Amino acid sequence: MTDTHPYKLRILKTWVARDPSLVFQCQPLGAPGETGFPKKSHLFIDLRQQSFGTRLQAEKPADADANHAFIQILRKNIATFTIKSILHHPPSGDYWIPLLSGPDTARPWLLRLAGSKPPLASLMAPDDTVFVSYGQKGTFTKKHQGEPRPTFSDLTDLLPKLMRDLRGDATNVDDTVAKDAETDAPEAAISKLQKDLTSRLKRKHKTSKKTLEKAKGDIPSAEDVLQKEREANLLQSYAWMVKPEAFELRLEPTLTGLPEDFVISLDPEATVGQNMEKKFAALHKARRGRELGQKHYEIARDYVSGLEKDLEELQREQKSDAFLQQLIRKYKLPELQSTTSSAGTAEPVSKPYKTYTASTGHSILVGKSAMDNDELTKAARSNDFWFHAVGVTGSHVIVPVTPDIRQALPTQLLREAAILALHFSRMRDDLAGECYVTRKQFLKKQRGMPAGLWRINQSESLFFRYSEEELQNILQTVRV
User: Fold this and answer.
1) pLDDT tens figures, 333-347
2) How many folded domains does the chain comprise?
């Protein structure tokens, strides 16, 4: 194979994640002396029908698992490899990814991503034998002759675009925004303040759209939930068939009623009972993830819709400074220099949170707004406790750790922090609700997420019911 560009991904680790998907930890490399790439990234191969494709992203999914038949067979045959091209055939939707593991690149191992319904990833040997396939219908390890490989020169290589996007130089965002602003209205009709605000909101709209697309792609599909339900229930029914240290359980159609063999991946180092617990835990997580994912998607969709309406209004005609300042506050943007502003009139900087004193004497910090929530959570220490109402928008609540509560929170302090989290949310009128309780270290703010939205990698969810009198007693302890 002939490479027409200098880009390549040196693969370091490989996992299988939910949904289903494959994840390759990689080191992005460009031409000699070319800079701007992160030291480590992740090639995400999405095998869901609604979001099928490849992308490079910073974070590894929290549920990534190396104990999977696909990964074990891949590593058994190819210990290390490099990816120099991601080839796409638009008419069929198929992807072909050569896995280069030695000096002979004429007929390398291939990862074929079939754009079928649902999509399927297959590992193909140089002689086109398929060793293992993986998708929403399960994992298949019966060897068979695969589809002949295409003429690679006829396919589109997507790797250069992925690499440029990763480095951030695919387009000059500032220049693009500036040109757009100039064409939206005549030069004389729009003030510099309004044009600057338009540029900032366009950048925010661009990142918010990416967040919206990612939120949609992160929602576990109904097929994925059904797959996990089948795995858990069938493993429970046929646990007696699992052999010691087996990495999979293959069930024939006569046992499952399905049209083909059903393969359940197993952890060979775990007992049958432990594997069963993992499957039911994965099922619960998928169901919960689908429910929360849909809610997060709706929140992000409403945010983007409101932003688009404000942009449309902003570009229609010259607006007053009061209107512009209202948008600046709404989207928590840094102050823009206005011609009517007075020099030397700096206002004191307020804290992004309110402080309440629990009956135990400990402080409870409550974010004031979405942007303030981000500032509060980012400033928290990794072992500080974090609270948030489940499934709705609301304030982030932080309980800073002190030496006496380093291991766990007293029951009353836990309750009072949760009450504040529920009160400062859309559930405030219910005097009851479910609340996330975790440590700051289990939260992740991913690039492009709207203000106030964080990814929760690990958490408890506890239900609380409280009285109006109990609430007022806590609210009266607020300190400026």
Assistant:
1) 776 655 444 444 444
2) 3
